[in-house]
Amino acid sequence: MPQELLFQVSPEIATNELLLKQHISKLIRVDLKEIQHVSILKRSIDARQKAVKFNLKVSIYLVGEPIHEAKIELPDYKNVENSQEVIVVGAGPAGLFAALQLIELGLKPIVIERGKDVRGRRRDLKAINRDHIVDEDSNYCFGEGGAGTYSDGKLYTRSKKRGDVTRILELFVAYGASHDILVDAHPHIGTNKLPQIIQDMREKIIEMGGKVLFETRLTDIIIKNNEVQGIVTKNGDTILANKIILATGHSARDIYELLDRKQIFIEAKAFALGVRAEHPQSLIDSIQYSCDYRGQHLPPSPYSIVKQVGGRGMYSFCMCPGGVIAPCATSPGEVVTNGWSPSKRDQATANSGIVVELRLEDFKPFAKFGALAGMEFQKSIEQKAWHLAGETQKVPAQKMVDFTQKKVSSNIPKTSYVPGTTSVEMGEVFPGFLTQILREGFVAFGKSMRGFLTNEAVLHAPESRTSSPVRIPRDAETLEHLQIKGLYPCGEGAGYAGGIISAAIDGEKCAMKIAQILNKIT
Fold this sequence. Notes:
By secondary structure, the chain is α+β, with helices and mostly antiparallel strands. It has helices spanning 11-14, 17-28, 93-104, 121-131, 165-174, 194-207, 253-261, 281-289, 373-388, 400-404, 432-448, 491-494, 500-517; strands at residues 3-9, 35-46, 53-62, 85-89, 108-112, 211-213, 218-224, 227-233, 238-240, 244-246, 267-268, 272-280, 306-309, 312-320, 324-327, 337-340, 349-357, 395-399, 421-423, 458-463, 470-471, 487-489.
């Protein structure tokens, strides 16, 4: 039987196979020649002390011991071409994993996606960056793979109670992701690698008899006696089914408006909103690793910071080491920021959303919109930012110290945000209470992370799509909508997930509930 061991080592040892074996031979007092193989089970970085260490959990196989490392393979999918059909609206992680789970359970998914396939999206992303043209159906948020495909592919989640995180990670590996995502404390695929994985998932869905329809936007849900009968698409087609998984993502405002018009119960939901801050990666490294140069053995450092300011949480969100800031508007007349990193995280800058928690009472000026009040609050800030920055995809920007001191920055250095920036006093973008919290919060951040509060950092506004501003309520047991039978609100857009992993888990959960109801599983 292999021996498992937990220990700390220097970055040099952790990243060198021979040095690692030599270290282990001393720890367990076994000759180096007797160590046949070392398998890393878990890996994380401890930067709390001046000397940065790697935490490792390993399995050690001595000479003569059989090496049993489970091969990760795809599930035994069934051909479902002639099986009962379930409509899945949205091809993000919730929709894709729901579709794959349906196939595994013997049901036929019909996936409709308003955007283009994962490769076709690239032309529209280029148009946003280069020409400031926003396609309402194909952008950083909409299209095959959802928002996460071209905005990083982070797989870290705190939502361990939501479901089987390991199963989702192993499915990603089976579809081509690096085995490292099973090992690293903060797994990450990278925007450059995730598209192929998403494409392979879609091809498997089609191979097993499912359907995937691109550039097919849902415009109506057919309901009779409070039970779904099917859907109508933008081009006038009708698709019939009495089970619908609604996995449309947190930016599908037209879906919320559709449900509201049809008097299908939805409710306003609190979310967080703020800015995206960009620092030189070398500066973040020096702060986090307490060194002038991180060297070749340490990865670009992330950071995570939380403060209570004025009775509200202000925190870093979707931090992207070695990454860039991207334009994520989903309609003309608005600007939205997000961040992503390639798999190597080798860009010169680090960026993170820095956001403040909002409350339902903050949306009172938009009370006439009912359950859509938070969405209209969000929209108003995005539209104001668009006007202030010149009515293009440029964003309002300000140096961090200047913002805390209410100074318009005399010049904004070139940042990773390709469409460009316009120097603006951020107080013009946000409501007064939010501006004040952000100003105080950045000062507090600077006290906790010496060097963080600097004019080398540039703030971009707004970071506004942190989570859905609407919840589509469902029964806690059946996962069906409280009012409409056969409708399964799912993932981030329904308010039940916050990232790729939790969305994928929720998609699987909805698929399993449908299979249970149809007596496919017990």
